[in-house]
TrEMBL record:
Full protein name: Uncharacterized protein YbjT (DUF2867 family)
Domain NAD(P)-binding: 8-103
Lineage, highest ranks first: Bacteria, Bacillati, Actinomycetota, Actinomycetes, Pseudonocardiales
InterPro entries in alphabetical order: Ergot_Alk_Oxidoreductase, NAD(P)-bd_dom, NAD(P)-bd_dom_sf
PANTHER family xrefs: PRESTALK A DIFFERENTIATION PROTEIN A, PTHR43162
Ranges annotated as spanning the membrane: none
Amino acid sequence: MSTVLVLGGTGTTGSRVTAFLRARGATARVATRSPSGPGQVRFDWTDPATHAPALDGATAVYLVAPIGEAEPAPLVAPFLDAARTAGVRRVVLLSSSAVPDADDGVGALPALVRGAVGESTVLRPSWFMQNLVGDHVLAAGIREHGEIVTATGDGRVGFVDAGDIAAVAGHALLDAEPHPSEHLITGPEALSYADAAAVLTDVTGSPVRHRAVTAEERTARFAASGIPDDFAALLAALDVAIAGGSEDRVTDTVARVTGRAPRTLREVATEALSPAGGEIRPGRAGA
Ligand SMILES: NC(=O)c1ccc[n+]([C@@H]2O[C@H](COP(=O)([O-])OP(=O)(O)OC[C@H]3O[C@@H](n4cnc5c(N)ncnc54)[C@H](OP(=O)(O)O)[C@@H]3O)[C@@H](O)[C@H]2O)c1
């Protein structure tokens, strides 16, 4: 049975990948800068001395690259060398539907991973539903002001549940047959942020609205939330791309890979608002 090192194992997708793998009897080793118990191992992208010990005995890796790092390749390449040396045969890389392949930046990672191990799959999910119901800056806006602020205009997005991404990742990590080199992953429908706000209004019983702003205002809001200026501008540019229709699509990947339908925003939001979840508490409109 596989031993999978789950990078970002305490994060939105990695924690769900870990749960998926363990439910199927695989060994999932959670990589974290702050291990707090069995099944966790210290791993820090910026401390290469932590890489080989984390990889010891692993046969596969779920790879979440260093978050917010504009040029991650210099950190990821030596890690992949160490993975190959440790006997890792399969890597599933979390990328994004919004990140095209490129010679540098985060767009360089798919080619790097493909060149490093025999079996690799790049996940290209659309925007996570959890951005709206978790700790993300958008969810904070809903909690505090009852509004979602974006520069996406009327553009639509195939929002996807992080649990569905994790299920696709889990299959790609465990299935006997290697998966295709890429999976473009969306939820079941493409929604504008105004559509999403209407769903959240319905589910929560409190008004949630979408407020469209300019790319400049969106950049400033990201920066004010602590995101570095250049990354804030990049995120705002992704909003502008959405306004132009870049994410207006749905794929059958979740159903094809997992054998079940992808979850709707309504289902995910309803679960998050249950007493056990309780992730968002919208403020009053206009608050
Ligand atoms: N949000 C979206 O809509 C969306 C859409 C498509 C793609 N994506 C991609 O998803 C990725 C983020 O994945 P996620 O949401 O699953 O993760 P996440 O919830 O943002 O969690 C980040 C993880 O990275 C770990 N981490 C942070 N700094 C680290 C370091 N220096 N060394 C080792 N680990 C470190 C954290 O672990 P510890 O704190 O425990 O160390 C944590 O588990 C991004 O690359 C983004 O491009 C996001």
